[in-house]
Design goal:
15 helices; mainly alpha; MetI-like fold; about 0% strand
């Protein structure tokens, strides 16, 4: 039995015109949505940049110009004397505070990267009993406010005779690295193909060899992300140094700014100049590590 086949009619010019009009409408709608999104992002960027702009403007003005003009007005005569006064003030030595902050931030960042990588590796690449329950227990510590453990932690460091030294600020970073950092490293390591582990096991490699020679070199983006997060947080930390450091010679930049504010309560241009100097290392670090930072956030599953 031969089935009759119906002839398929060729598209008519009217159909092409209909498709073309629909495609143009879709393209126009996409363009409008992009413009709206760009406007929203531009508005948000301007709003977030306004405090930075005000801080820079005030740091370049004199006391008289700040009192006579708006805080948003660009200075008529730029002055760099404010930065010189901040850097050379003997009552609040800026370079001493900078050195203390650099020591604490560097040691803490290194400890967080090393310890969080070591803890994240077994959660991401090994299979053992109770692994998921332990990981959930680890994540639950993120819900515990830091203020709750502040007093017990202070008592512990007091018995260890660490009060007045940098030890409470950087030593704990070498024993865990924080739940969020471990979570981010675990998510990134889980994205590395397991074929690399299997090939290394066939060649006789141990877990330590796989970690140091395969996993860690391929986790550079995640480590850069954690490093930026940790360095910025430690550099801007105020409550930690305030509690544990009781010597003026060991103050960090955040405490130094508070001291400088107490010494110059009405000199806003000096305080803004000091704030700009404190912020410069953070901006430089973010610019240098921006590519790795974005890659680490995307590939670790945090969106």
């Amino acid at each position: 039995m031969i089935k009759e086949t119906k002839a398929v009619s060729a598209p008519q010019p009217a159909d092409y015109e209909k498709y073309r009009v629909a495609a143009k409408r879709a393209e126009a709608a996409t363009t409008v949505l992009r413009l709206i999104l760009w406007c929203v992002l531009l508005f948000g960027s301007v709003v977030f940049m306004m405090p930075l702009y005000m801080m820079i403007v005030m740091s370049l003005k004199t006391t008289q110009e700040i009192a006579a003009s708006s805080v948003w007005a660009w200075p008529k005569h730029l002055t760099w004397d404010n930065f010189h006064l901040v850097l050379t003030n003997p009552n609040a030595p800026f370079f001493l505070f900078f050195r203390n902050s650099a020591i604490v931030a560097t040691l803490t960042t290194a400890g967080v990267i090393v310890s969080s990588s070591l803890v994240a590796y077994p959660f991401a690449r090994l299979r053992f009993r109770g692994r998921d329950r332990l990981f959930i227990l680890l994540l639950s510590t993120m819900m515990l406010p830091g203020l709750v453990v502040m007093i017990p932690t202070f008592i512990l460091y007091k018995y260890l005779h660490w009060i007045g030294s940098f030890n409470p600020l950087w030593v704990p970073a070498w024993f865990g690295g924080g739940a969020f950092n471990i979570f981010l490293m675990r998510q990134f390591m889980m994205g590395i193909p397991r074929d690399l582990d299997e090939a290394a096991f066939i060649d006789g490699a141990s877990h330590s060899t796989i970690f140091w020679r395969i996993i860690l070199p391929n986790s550079g983006a995640a480590m850069a992300t954690i490093g930026i997060f940790c360095f910025v947080y430690t550099w801007k930390d105020f409550i930690g140094p305030l509690i544990y450091l009781n010597s003026p010679e060991k103050q960090t930049l955040e405490l130094g700014l508070k001291t400088y504010q107490a010494l110059n309560q009405e000199r806003w241009e000096l305080l803004m100049s000091g704030s700009v100097l404190v912020m410069i290392p953070l901006i430089v670090m973010f610019i240098l590590g921006q590519r790795y930072f974005v890659k680490g956030i995307v590939m670790s599953g945090i969106k």
